[in-house]
Every structure is written in C-alpha cells, then in structure tokens.
Amino acid sequence: MHKFLMGLWRVFASPFRFIFNLIASPFRAIYRRSPEFFDRIWRVITSPFRLIYNIIAFPFRKLSQFNKFLNTEPDEHPLTEVFVDLTTNQDTRQMMWDQVEALRMHLLRAVLALMLMVGVSFLFTQNVVNYLAQPVGGLDKLKAIEVTESISVFMKVALFSGIALSIPYIAFELWWFAAPGLRPRERKMGLFGIPLASIFFIGGAAFTFFLMLPTALPFLNNFMGINTELRPQSYFSFVIGLMFWIGVSFEFPLVIYVLSAIGFVQPEILAQQWRLAIVIIAIVAAIITPTIDPVNQGLVMAPMILLYFISIGLSHIASAGRKRNQAEEQRKADEAETG
C-alpha cells in the first residue's frame, strides 16, 4: 500500500517537478558560473532575518547553557592531592593561577557594579538623607560646622545605598566563582540564596532604623542631662555604620545554611557550642552597639541570638538534604555496579 501511494505521488508530482526544473535550470546555470556573487546577495537579503532570529534565540541559548552548567557534576579532586600536585605538577600550579585570575575578574566586576549602583544612588540620595534624618526631627536639627561636611554625608549615604543595591550582583559574582567546584544541588541552593542575601541585609538595616534607633537616640542625646548638638557627619556616620553592620550580621543564617549544604559546617557542633556563641554575640553586640546601656545592647543581642538558633535549624535542614542526596548517589552507584 505504501509503495502504491508513493508511486501515485510520483505520477501526480511529475508535471510540477518538470515545470520547476524548467524554470530553475537557467538560474542554476547562472549560479554555477558565479556562486560567490549569489552567496553574497543571499547573505545580504537574509541578514535581517538572521539577526532577528539570533536576537530571539539568544536568551534561550543562554538559558540552555546555564541549565546545563547547573546540572554538570564537577571533577573530584581531593584537597590533599591538590596540595601535593601544587608542589610537583606545573599544570596544577597554572590552574591555581588561573583561578586567582578568575577571582580577580569576579571581584573587578563586583567593584564595577558597586560603582555603577553608587552612581545610580545619586539620583535619590537626597531623599534617603531626608528619610534617615527623621528620627532626630529632620535635617533642620543638624548643624554642619565644616564646608565639606554636607558633601561627605551625601557620598556616605550614596555609598551605603549603592552597597544595598549591588548586594545581589556581588553575591552572584561570588557564587559564579565558586559554582564550578560545587555539586548541582549545591549550585542551585547557592543560586537560591542570592536574593535572600539582599532580603536579610535590608531586614537588618530596617531593624536598626525602626526598632533600635528610636530607643538609642533619646538615651544618647540626653545622657547626663546634656543636650546634644548633632552634626550631619557624626549622625549619619553613626546611623549608616550601625545599619550596615547589623545588616551584615543578619546574613549569618544564610551563610550557615550554604556552608552546611556544602558540608563545611555541622549542625551538631553549632548546637553544642551555643553557650560560646552567646558569649561571642555579646562581645560583638557590645562593639556594634553605640551605647553602653544594657537595653540597647540587648536589642542587638536578641535578634542575633534568635538568628543563631534559626541558623541551627537551617543547618539541620541543609545537612539532612545533603545526606539524602549522598545516599541517593550511593544507591545509584551501587545499582550501576551490580547492573
């Protein structure tokens, strides 16, 4: 039946093939005489369509490459073997310098992104300055005594805003540098943690501004009954420094989760050393806290202690997932050996 239909199709299509060949034969003869000329014309005619196709296909190609990168298993190199090879193998030493060069490029791009975000922050820095001055009643309550003081404050606030805006890209560059040596699950978890880095940092800065400053500033401004004449330089350095360091401390659960997922941190050790952790938190809180009273130090310590115990729970989750993944890989390896 198939041969009959094919034969019927040939009979039906033969007149059309004859007409097509008859029309195309002079063009084929001309093309054989100067094929390069017609190839150039064809490339010129099709170049807009190829450009549109490449523009449309570009993001899909990159997504495909990125997905392949996320799911590629890294080469296994034991750490002791790497250290031995560094002293004996020229290729290993060259690979190390290549990694140093790659790290330099990642850091360079991160710095360029920070500079760009600081430049973008210039567009709204004045609004941020006005907002940060609200706890003391606005900019009218601040008195500058130096000519360049206002410019210095503007640049500090712009730098802080630029850091807050560029944290996702800086975290991405650090992840991009470490990703080739991570397993697929670890890469995906690190990628998922990039937006959380900004959320935790902004959360720490918001905690400082909305909860801590309203408690700390009245105590500082009226200590011993002495009224304080606030300068823009000292006030904004105090506020920005406090918001920055507490924002950084809020990144601790995320860092612990990532390190536990990789296997560098064990949740059992974190749970056993909680007393030592509280002592260290108290020391750090005393350094960060701008006042000497226990109330403000307690305001800093309380979220940090809570974040530490949250980190223990996240570490257990990450460690359990890592163990399940290792058990699954071992099961597949055993099945491959027995099969």
Q: What share of residues are in beta strands?
A: under 5%
Count every helix, treating DSSP H or I runs of 4 or more residues as helices.
Answer: 12
Task: Please give the alpha-carbon distance between the first and last residues.
Answer: 44 Å
Global morphology: elongated
The profile of the biggest β sheet is: none
Name the assembly state.
Answer: single chain
Number of separate strands: 0
Tell me the structural class: mainly alpha
Uncertain residue ranges: none
Average pLDDT number: 79
Range of helix content: over 70%
Question: Over the alpha carbons, how many angstroms does the gyration radius reach?
Answer: 32 Å
SSE run: HHHHHHHHHHHH
Describe, in plain words, how this protein is organized in 3D.
The protein is elongated. 83% of the residues lie in helices and 0% in strands. It is mainly alpha-helical. It is built from 12 helices and no strands. The mean pLDDT is 79. The relative contact order is 0.06.
Summarize the structure.
The chain has 339 residues and is mainly alpha-helical. The chain contains 12 helices and no strands. The protein starts with a helix and ends with a helix.
Secondary structure elements and their pairing?
Layout: H1 2-33, H2 35-70, H3 79-88, H4 90-121, H5 125-132, H6 149-178, H7 184-221, H8 232-249, H9 252-262, H10 267-272, H11 274-288, H12 294-338
